[in-house]
Amino acid sequence: MAAARAAAMHVVGVTSLPGVTLAADTVFPSLTHPALTHWATTVGTPDE
What we know:
The chain is α+β, with helices and mostly antiparallel strands. It is built from two helices and two strands. The protein is flat.
């Protein structure tokens, strides 16, 4: 987290254990969450 914040990057977290709090900018409850999967299919690659 410290390195990502120092680089002004947005951190996305996915919880894998119930009750665990992640120090991320955006947290999703699973890898299959609709908003996360939508974002993952629309984000560009570094070459674009």
